[in-house]
């Protein structure tokens, strides 16, 4: 370098390539983490909605005339989706209770997202 000339400094090609490689690795890591968080959020939302479907159905059962033991499968529209609700009712005479088991699945997949058991006194149940 001669006196009086201005020195231009910049990055070398290797430095630029290393920086690009680091940014690419970070972008892939952020994309993967974001996809995982989005999937988990969807699964939590589906399980929450399934529990609401079950709670709504139990409330309807409590408001209806008493039912006897048996089982049935219902299709329910809730939150702009179609749900499968499997209901099994068993009389437990030794305990004086009617056991109601509900399994909730999202159509068309059919994988169970929520399951609950509720008990009613036998005196409220038609034998």
- Briefly note the structural class of the backbone: alpha+beta
In DSSP terms (H or I, runs of 4 or more residues), the helix count works out at 1
Oligomer: single chain
CATH superfamily heading = GSPII I/J protein-like
CATH C-level: Alpha Beta
Tell me roughly what share of residues is in helical segments: 40-55%
What is Rg? 30 Å
Spell out the blueprint of helices and strands.
Layout: H1 13-63, E1 70-78, E2 81-92, E3 97-106, E4 112-121
Antiparallel strand pairs: 1-2, 2-3, 3-4
Describe the structure.
This protein has 127 residues and is an alpha+beta fold. The chain has one domain (13-124): GSPII I/J protein-like (Pantoate--beta-alanine Ligase, Chain: A,domain 2, 2-Layer Sandwich). The chain has one helix and four strands, in the order αββββ. The chain has one helix at 13-63; strands spanning 70-78, 81-92, 97-106, 112-121. Strands 1-2-3-4 form a four-stranded antiparallel sheet, with helices on one face. The protein is rod-shaped. The termini are far apart.
Outline:
The chain has one helix at residues 13-63; strands at residues 70-78, 81-92, 97-106, 112-121.
Name a few traits of the molecule.
Pantoate--beta-alanine Ligase, Chain: A,domain 2; alpha+beta; 127 residues; 40% helix
């Amino acid at each position: 370098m001669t006196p009086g000339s201005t020195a231009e400094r910049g990055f070398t090609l290797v430095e630029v390539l290393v920086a690009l490689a680091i940014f690419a690795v970070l972008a892939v890591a952020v994309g993967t983490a974001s996809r995982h968080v989005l999937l988990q959020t969807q699964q939590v939302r589906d399980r929450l909605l399934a529990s609401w479907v079950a709670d709504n159905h139990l409330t309807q059962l409590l408001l209806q005339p008493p039912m006897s033991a048996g089982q049935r499968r219902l299709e329910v529209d809730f939150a702009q989706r179609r749900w499968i609700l499997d209901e099994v009712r068993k009389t437990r005479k030794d305990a004086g209770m009617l056991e109601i088991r509900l399994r909730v699945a999202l159509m068309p997949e059919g994988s169970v997202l929520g399951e609950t058991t509720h008990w009613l006194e036998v005196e409220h149940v038609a034998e």
